[in-house]
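Why do we care about 3D structure at all? Because function follows from shape, and shape follows, mostly, from sequence. That is the central idea of this module. The next example makes it concrete: a single protein chain, its amino acid sequence, and then its structure expressed as tokens.
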Amino acid sequence: MFIHTSVLFVLCVFEAEGGMSDISSRLSELENIVKSQSSRIIHLEENVETLRQNNTQLGEIIEGQKEQLKSLERRGDQQRSDQQDNIVKELTRESRLLSANPGVTIVAFHARLSKKETPAKHHTIIFDVINTNSGNGYNKFSGVFTAPVDGIYVFSYTIVPECSSFGAFELVSNNQIQGVVFPEAASGCDYTGSSTVSVVELSQGDVTFVRTSPTYTPVGTIVSNGNMWTSFAGWRIGDRM
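And the structure:
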């Protein structure tokens, strides 16, 4: 009877110790799981914080880009405004130029002789090389300028006489003498040219040219070359009063 009771006691103790060991093992496993989950939670929280910081930075970048876009839009609006102002100013300027005669903005010409010439009395000088002819008023075949539009014009001409040459040369507008020069190289070969400037009021279609005097016979030759030009020029400076 005593032996049997001892055996039962030993069995109970063994079973109790085995059960405790299993519980401890499971508790240990649970602790490890909790630690692992805690570590993962901490890692996830760190990732969330990193993402939040990144989002904040992206938000700041986006706001900065928005400000840059607004600045560019303001600059673009200003540039467009400046361009429009410039266009308006240019159109206004062109309108003023065109107001006198639509289609004619600038009238100006400059022509010269291409070679020597020995003119007779009452002879039109034909300046046959054109350097400028805005408005197409000058005719290099006739030597005559025809005003394409009413206005006040300035004319200038230079006559260069050859050695021992001289004569009177007139600027004529509509049969009215507007200027006279008398170049003379009678005393030698100094090639001293003579020039004059005249201001003339013209109507559209009026003609102007340079000729020798109808009452004085010129002597010798006038010259025009690479060193000196016998030339004729004119340009419109404004409307008639």
